[in-house]
Every structure is written in structure tokens, then in C-alpha cells.
């Protein structure tokens, strides 16, 4: 079968069968393919975002503000929860199957050409990045907000040589088998997106990470803007929104409101606002535009209410679980808490479970299985929940059955579904399918 005769479903399946976690090709390989594609990345203003936690949210805040300003805006994010198209958003609309398929065919035709010249076939993420570049170029977006896939220094997105601004969100231990086993090593990989003379905005609350990022910015004469919690003040929190202010000293004091129950989104919003302010030398982005963009942002799978009393959260590492627990404890203070949990094999789920049990009063837990070849037998996390003090634990390997059981057990309480983005995606898929039945 030739690429030009593939359907959307066949193209999506081809991409999914491309190994996700093989060794990356060199950036030169990706750059060579971009040259064959006509250097699409050079025809848009790119905002490049890296980090361990929060980078998707920062990207969405940035895209929302740019769209509120009337800018023709692209958004490239990962991972997708249900459909691969979710990674490619233009003016707040997911690209359709036809546009995706056309871009796939363009990229694969080019890949065939460069392979004859000795280049390697793109890996999973490299292929998605190249498709994105073609999609956004064809749509003639003015601004592209772009999230790294893994790390930064060697990530396919780092083949973009001249972004208008870079952002590095919070750094913590994750993907240590690829990025290093210390915060400093991981920060060094993320700091690889910093470019000579290009402003970098970064989370300064982890001193080890901040030191590495600041030093790299200094070496490259990149103007550096550190954002820390002391610059932020929350004035009110409800179960629908958070009102807060930013007083960074880099620009005028500003009061904002986010449509989220998660306190960690305050820092992400501040990073995004600072990036926009730094990029906007001519002050085109007014305070009204910023407030509108921040208030309108919606981010799937991050403390997202999907049914009354049912929230899904993609926390899948220790730092993410720390923030999840903080928010869940507040929301569940007066209601019994049911937890639907699943994890994948390359995450430290033992410490995730220990923290949840230690800090969040749980009425009951349902453990299920997700993640394909990386799945964890439900009996293992279930045993850990019992070990750390939760007496009411059910094992239910089938996700749909587990979700139904969790809804039944929840009663008048609150249900949190957490532990893996695969779990979030599975629940999204179930809800979408049942809505159409």
C-alpha cells in the first residue's frame, strides 16, 4: 500500500505502530527532512515550551491569549488522549481528518525521498512534529505555540533554530532513564531549548533547576525571567475558578482569574503571561486581552470535571501527584473521596500511592489497568493501597467496568480518576462513546 492511498485510520495506525521510545535520530536528520519540506518552521513565529509538569497548560494559556488578540494561532501539544488530531490545534479547533491525512502524505513522500539519500525514518514523535509543521504552514498560522515531546536538547522540536521566546516550566524527576537521574541533569536537558539572545521565562521555585537554567541563559546571552511563587497571590478559590494576582516586577501588577480548581495552574498562567509580555515589545497584547485569554483557557485532563462530582487528572509522576493531592484534599474536605487509579510500568507508582494514602482521606479505591505493553497488573497497586492503610480496595482490570464500579461506589461523594494519562484518555473515550449511544 502506498502512503497516498491510505485512509485517515490507516495513517493514524501507521503512526501508532512507529516505536515511541526508540533512540531518537539526530536533530540533523529532522532538519534534513524540514529542508526537503521547504523549511516550514521559518514562516511562523514560534513560542517553544519545555518542562516536566505544566508545559501543556502553559502552551494552552499562550494559545488562548494569542487567539483572544485575534492572531492566527497554531498549537502543537502532546500527548493526545483519544485521537492523534488533538495534538494539532488551529484557532482553538482541532484539525480535521482530511487536513491531517494530507499533511501525513506530504511528510511521508518527503521521507521516502530522504531515505534514498541516507536519512533515517522519523521516530514516532519526530513524525508527528513534521506533520505539525506541514499542517501549520499550510494553514499560514502567524504564531505557533509548540510543546516539546521529551526533554528539550535532543527533542525534535529543538530543530527550530529561532523561536521568538522559550519557556521552561517546573522541573522534577521524570523519564530519568532518558534524561538523567538528578534535577540538575534534567534541567540541563530542558535548558537545551534556550537559544542565543532569545528570552527565556522559567519556573524559579526549584533552586537546583533554576541555577542550571539561569547559568545556561547567561552563557547564551538570553534574557532570563524567573517566576516564583512569591510573585503570586491568590485572593479567592472556589470549585470553579481561582482569582489571583501577579507582581513580578517585570511588568505592571495584574489581577487575573482562571477557570480551574487546580492551584498549580496559577504558576502556569503566570509563566504564560510573562512570556507574552516579554515577546510583546510593542504592547499589542492589552491587559483586557490577557485577562480574556487566561479566563477562557480549558485544558483537558488536568483536574477536569467530566461529570458531576467526577474529576480526571493526568498526574503521573511525584510532582504531579503532589499537586493533585493538594487540590483533591481541598475539594474533598467535606465529601467522601473515591479514587480510580491506574499506572504504567515506567513510573514510580509505589511512591505515588504512598503519598496519596498519607495525605488524602480515601473512602475507597478501584484499581484498573491501562497502557498497553506498559500496563501494570491491577493486583500490584491494589496491594500497595492496602499496605498504606486503605481497607476498601477493588481490583478491576477492565477500564470501562472499573469506571462503572467507581461511579456506583462514589454515591454522593467525589470521584477522582488519576495515575496515568492513558487512564484519562480511556475515560474520555468511554464518555464520548456513551454520549453517542
Question: What keywords describe this structure?
Answer:
437 residues, 15 helices, 17% strand
Please tell me about this protein's structure.
Helix 7 packs parallel to helix 8. A hairpin with a 2-residue loop joins strand 3 and strand 4. The protein is built from 15 helices and 17 strands. With 437 residues, it is α/β, with parallel strands linked by helices. The model has no long low-confidence stretch (mean pLDDT 89). The strands form three sheets. It has an eight-stranded mixed β-sheet, sandwiched between helices. A six-stranded mixed β-sheet has the order 12-13-17-14-15-16, sandwiched between helices. It has a three-stranded antiparallel β-sheet with strand order 9-10-11.
SSE blueprint:
Blueprint (H helix, E strand, L loop, with lengths): L7 H10 L9 H10 L8 E6 L4 H14 L4 E4 L11 E3 L2 E2 L2 H20 L7 H15 L4 E5 L17 E4 L7 H4 L3 H8 L9 E4 L3 H13 L4 E4 L4 E6 L4 E5 L7 E5 L5 H16 L7 H10 L7 E4 L2 E4 L4 H14 L5 E5 L7 H11 L4 E4 L11 H9 L5 E3 L3 H12 L3 E5 L2 H16 L1
Parallel strand pairs: 1-5, 1-6, 2-5, 6-7, 7-8, 13-17, 14-15, 14-17, 15-16
Antiparallel strand pairs: 2-3, 3-4, 9-10, 10-11, 12-13
Helix pairs in contact: 3-9, 3-10, 4-5, 7-8, 11-12
